[in-house]
Amino acid sequence: MDRAPDFGSVGCGFESCLGRLSMDEETRRILILLLARLERISADSQLAHQASGVRGSLIRLLDLDNGEKTIAKTNVKWLMEDGFSILYKAFKEKAR
After folding, report:
1. For 28-48, how does the pLDDT look when each residue is reduced to its tens digit (9 = 90+)?
2. How many domains does the chain have?
3. Does residue 83 fall inside a structural domain?
């Protein structure tokens, strides 16, 4: 028997179809590591301001994960891409 899904229930997986899911432990560890690395960028660096903004967003995201059940998957992806991009630029700046 086919039955219409109850999209209001928590266990239906509807939110994951929309790109929202709970943050898994591996992603959380990567974000914490990224946060620690961004913190080490020198204040004299031109990238320090950008790193500070991404760090603030990461902190809010990790706090949000503690309080809510779902987080937008795209937000996590964008933050990780921005953070790693800043780290790469800082590395290239330091290597000069």
Report:
1. 899 999 999 999 999 888 899
2. 1
3. yes
